[in-house]
Design a protein that fits this description.
- It contains 13 helices and 16 strands.
- Strands 7-6-5-4-8-1-9-10-2-11 form a ten-stranded mixed sheet, with helices on both faces. Strands 13-14-15-16 form a four-stranded antiparallel sheet, covered by helices on one side.
- It has 497 residues and is α/β, with parallel strands linked by helices.
- A hairpin with a 3-residue loop joins strand 14 and strand 15.
- Bound molecules: calcium ion.
- The site of calcium ion has 6 residues, from loops.
Length: 497
């Protein structure tokens, strides 16, 4: 089983896959954006006033957050993928905004999700490792001291659900129902077997290894239930029924697919669809991505059918970059992979659709981050956190409509404690990368492959960004728990207790 740990990942310089030329463009889109957005706003206003659908809840949009797991940057059509059609995922971008420089706050699953759901850099609260699956350890996971934005939506009257992967702690105190979700269906660990015949361990509270956690029954709220469908299809089914059940009230749907994370398992019908792909790993991966795309299609069709599309914000992203040879993913021309702080680890497929509120068919090129999701929702829907839980993200909507000029972020930051790695990224795509004692400077606007180190060319900028790094680092905590890479050490501490 692929463990998700990366001590010495390969970091290829050579592009594995070339994106089409449009992906390299960094257009000055603001004037165009403003014009288009005005037209769109007018059209949206017309639509909402004439349709009468959900007139009362126009200020309380539904929110659907769809997360793919270990999906590579270039493995969706809107980022240039050629061998795996993703027409439904592409619809989100075509009818909304594609983020060319969309980042996640960490390069592996669990911290990335902790940051996304809190809207805060996970390093602020010591969350820099993949959790171990230990249902009897309340310290192994996302601390109850942190607030999650779904809880604020729930308090504001939203019906909230998680469908799929949790991966923020298996102890009952840390379960989704205790963290702001009204209901949930899914599994607690970092991944799962896909075929129902493989799910033979009934009680998720009675397993204590990652491998076993992949084979449990599903949890429906507090009950273990036996699933009969291929897992990705099951989650899509649950998503459609959740939307139908909650059509009359504002809802938040966190659809957290574990696909296309390992194990590589697909349905025979979809494998047949990709029989022209010779590489078996890539073929299976393609079939899994296609299942996610089918699910996204089902979600969008359900919104259309119920007349909810215009009042629903749909966000799609991957939780980290593609792990390349571990699951057959591709990050296009980006260097590195899951687990690294090169672009291939943290820059992901990322798009948002909100008809009538943001323009359609736009590529937004300035850096944005998954932490912006919580801030965007807080900015648009309300529900700001208490001061001690201050968000690190920015409400992106004014930037997407052209109302706010400039970049959403002067600086974005990353730290990978166990790798002694840091990144500081500026709003104009300059990137400081520190790995141990070595510090590099890249200009991603001209060199997103990170092949030309400018450290000696621009020493003043390097120094400035390093000061910024130290300033941010001083606000962080060390890791709060031992993770997947420290399993042996963790087991020893348990024996001593
Ligand atoms: Ca992941």
């Amino acid at each position: 089983m692929y463990s998700g740990t990366f001590h010495s990942p390969p970091e290829p310089f050579e592009p594995l896959f070339q994106l089409p030329s449009f992906a390299y463009l960094h257009p000055m889109i603001q004037p165009t954006l403003t014009t288009i957005s005005r037209l769109f706003m007018a059209a949206g206003l017309l639509f909402t006033t004439t349709s009468g659908i959900h007139a009362q809840s126009a200020n309380r949009p539904n929110i659907i957050l769809i997360v793919a797991d270990d999906l590579g940057y270039s493995d969706v059509g809107f980022n240039g993928c050629k061998d795996i059609p993703t027409p439904n995922i592409d619809r989100i971008a075509a009818q909304g905004v594609r983020f060319d420089a969309g980042y996640v706050c960490f390069s592996v699953c669990s911290p990335s999700r902790a940051g996304m759901l809190t809207g805060r850099y996970p390093q602020r609260f010591g969350y820099e490792r993949n959790v171990l699956y230990v249902p009897d350890d309340p310290a192994m996971g996302l601390s109850r001291d942190e607030e999650l934005f779904p809880g604020r939506l729930q308090q504001a009257g939203y019906r909230t659900t998680l469908l799929g992967k949790w991966h923020l702690g298996a102890h009952p105190d840390l379960h989704p129902l205790k963290r702001g979700f009204s209901e949930w269906y899914g599994f607690l660990g970092g991944g799962h077997q896909y075929h129902p015949d493989s799910l033979r361990l009934k009680d998720p509270m009675k397993v204590f290894t990652e491998e076993a956690s992949y084979r449990t029954w599903m949890n429906r709220d507090l009950e273990p239930v036996k699933e009969g469908d291929y897992l990705t299809d099951a989650l899509s089914r649950e998503a459609a029924t959740f939307i139908e059940r909650n059509r009359q009230q504002p809802f938040f749907l966190y659809l957290a697919y574990n696909a296309p994370h390992t194990p590589l398992q697909a349905t025979p019908e979809r494998l047949e669809k990709f029989k022209q792909i010779e590489n078996k790993q890539r073929r299976t991966y393609a079939a899994m991505v296609s299942a996610v795309d089918d699910g996204v299609g089902r979600v969008l069709e359900t919104l259309d059918k119920l007349g909810l599309a215009s009042n629903t914000m749909v966000i799609f992203l991957s939780d980290n970059g593609g792990p390349l040879h571990h699951n057959g993913s591709r990050n296009g021309d980006l260097r590195g992979m899951k687990g690294t702080l090169f672009e291939g680890g943290i820059r992901v497929p990322f798009a948002i659709r909100w008809p009538g509120k943001i323009p359609a068919g736009i590529t937004y090129t300035k850096p944005v981050i998954s932490l912006d999701i919580a801030a965007t929702i807080a900015g648009q829907v309300g529900g700001q956190p208490r001061p001690k839980h201050a968000l690190d993200g920015t409400d992106l909507i004014p930037f997407l409509t052209g109302k706010s000029k400039g970049a959403p972020h002067d600086f974005l930051y990353w730290r990978h404690f166990d790798q002694k790695s840091y990144v500081v990224l500026t709003g104009d795509h300059h990137k400081l990368l520190k790995r141990g004692d070595s510090t590099y400077l890249f200009n991603l606007a001209a060199d997103r492959q990170e092949t030309r180190d400018l450290a000696t060319v621009e020493p003043r900028l390097l120094k400035k960004l390093d000061r910024e790094r130290l300033r941010w680092d001083a606000q962080l905590k060390p890791p709060a728990f031992l993770g997947l890479s420290q399993r042996d050490e963790y087991m020893k501490t348990r024996q001593r207790k």
